[in-house]
Amino acid sequence: MNITLNGHPETIPDDLTVEGFLSTRDLQPIRVAVEINEELVPRKTFSETRIQPGDRIEVVTFVGGG
Q1: What pTM value is reported for the model?
Q2: Is the pLDDT reported for residue 65 higher than 70?
Q3: Residue spans of beta strands (DSSP E) within the chain
Q4: Residue 16, helix vs strand vs coil
Q5: d(CA 35, CA 58)
Q6: Contact, 4 vs 10, CB < 8 A?
Q7: What are the residues whose beta carbons fall under 8 Å from the beta carbon of 25, sequence distance 6 or more?
Q8: 48 pLDDT exceeds 90?
Q9: Given phi > 0 = left and psi -120 to 50 = alpha, else beta, which region is 17?
Q10: What domains sit in the chain, N to C, each tagged with a CATH number?
Q11: Given its phi and psi angles, is residue 28 left (phi above 0), alpha (psi -120 to 50 degrees) or beta?
Q12: pLDDT, tens digit, 9 for 90 and up, residues 14-39
């Protein structure tokens, strides 16, 4: 299915949850924030929130430092 990821067109497998999508990118849910169509997705719903064709997804990774 076609989506927009961080402003760029992407093709991903059908029927993915946010959690499943993150695992395809080797991203740990605890280290990212996800927004779909300008709505923040609560981390506790990653496993049940399904990605739909045409969704605009923003994924921001947290980086530690000092």
Answers
A1: 0.90
A2: no
A3: 2-5, 8-11, 32-36, 39-40, 56-61
A4: coil
A5: 5
A6: yes
A7: 59
A8: yes
A9: beta
A10: 2-60 (3.10.20.30)
A11: beta
A12: 999 999 999 999 999 999 999 999 99
